[in-house]
Amino acid sequence: MLIKNKYFFIAVFFVIIIAVQAASAKENAAFGKKNGAVKAERVPKERQFVYDTKEKRDPFVALVTKEGRIIEPPARKRKTDEIYLEGIIYDPKGGSYAVIDGEIWKAGDSIGAATIIRIESQKIIFLKSDKEFEVELKKEE
Questions:
Q1: What is the average pLDDT across 4-25?
Q2: CA-CA distances (angstroms) from residue 21 to 15, 24, 29, 35, 43?
Q3: What's the number of domains the chain is made of?
Q4: Cα within 13 Å of Cα(56), Cβ side
Q5: Is residue 9 part of a domain?
Q6: Is residue 77 pLDDT above 60, yes or no?
Q7: What number is the average pLDDT over the span 38-43?
């Protein structure tokens, strides 16, 4: 009698599993799913999101290939000759840096056609076409 009950419960267990699988398959078919995969839908253009990199590295693109080779980001192209000085890290001993257009620069670096000659506490001196010009750090109000 115990053996018959054991087989009965096993048979009921399998019937329940098959019923759940059938109900799940029917539900997936009703929602346009096949083998658990969601069917792709066309999204209207006005609802699509386009990531604007603002000429910086796209954070969604890998930096290393599957083989382990480092991918170099494309060189940034400057749209204008305007230089926007965001900040200065000043060191009187000569290790000063400037933050220009979101990038860090030091004396001797070239930004477009201009070369940084020297970085002072409140301004940067550039050389362009054999003429020096200064860009001052704007004070916050």
A1: 83
A2: 10, 5, 12, 12, 31
A3: 2
A4: 9
A5: yes
A6: no
A7: 62
Considering 2-11, 61-70, 96-105, the range whose residues carry the highest mean pLDDT is: 96-105
**CB-CB contact of 126 with 134 (8 Å):** yes
What global pTM score does this model have? 0.44
Tell me what the pLDDT averaged over the chain comes to.
Answer: 78
Q: How far apart are CA 16 and CA 24, in angstroms?
A: 12
Domain of residue 2 covers: 1-41
What's the Cα-to-Cα distance from 59 to each of 15, 51, 127, rounded to whole Å? 50, 10, 34
Q: Is 12 helix (H, G, I), strand (E, B) or coil?
A: helix
Amino acid 97: pLDDT: 92
- Owner of token pair 């759940």: 20
